[in-house]
Fold this protein.
Amino acid sequence: MLERNASRWRGALASFVFVSGRSALAAAVLAAIAVLAALPVLSGAEPRSPPWTRVDEGATGERTGAVLLRVPGSDRLLLVGAAEGAPCVQAFDPESRAWSSVSAAGPAAERFQPYYQAACDPSARTVYCLSGGSVLHAFSLAEGTWSSSPPAAELDGLSWHALACDPRRGKLVAIGADKKAGAIGWTRTVVYDIATGKWSRLEVEQRESDDGGARRPCRELEALGEAAADLAGRIRLAWFRDPEGAGTDEEIRSLAARAESLSRLPPAGGFRAQVESVAELLGKRRLLGALRAARDLSRSIEDAAEAACGVPRSRRNSPLAFDEASGLFVLFGGDH
């Protein structure tokens, strides 16, 4: 069972940085940070004190999609999210390990789940939250009240949002999956100016000309990646349904035909060896091996598409954080 599920988490564990105030994107910053943070554990050194201590259980009420926020300049943490029979906004005092109510009611939203979609602006003493839609909710720490902005067209059609705040420039940055035809990279980046209350879409450099000739490689890589992901999914299904893991004659023929069709797509020549490996394993009815090879192929195509498109691939459950020292928004991990 582990073999069947392990690789679903591999695809999006990459790092990206967005330079606030500029349209530059770069890769592989947080990976080094993550490695450094893990060194004490990896080295086998004994921890000086127990790494985790249970504070309480059930004290904040049953809730889904809540988020815990650090408020710069405050000695408390804020828990924000709808809860049944409990305040929507609660504060946690690490010193006393006690919770207190900040706001009993939440925003006037039918379903309020701000996980990965909440950020605090300490200068305005305001917590901003999205909830999987195009409406921005704001909670004033000074007044203890919620307000909501009109729906923003720049956020329409976006899914799996992530939100972070640059308090120095008074900006919010929201990213999300934009799975529309022709949406290069499938990630949309939108910036909110806190002072004016206006959203603007970040037009990422796509490294392509407008004549269509240089645009095709990126879009063709996206299409090839979709075909590879589809092939891997169908191989997995055939393997899963057969206790012997060999598939039926009809399934093998169908999968082989899809692999052949994939090999004729324009950018497939750059991945010829991997495509041939999938086809060979299908011919031998070694579906588990073919599944591994198809997933490796899909990952290789994703890496190539990311390099060509200059924007992270779409993902979900991926936090976005702002580093005030460097002025970078950092996007890490996720799954897709």
Summary: Helices lie at 2-5, 30-42, 216-241, 249-263, 272-283, 287-309.
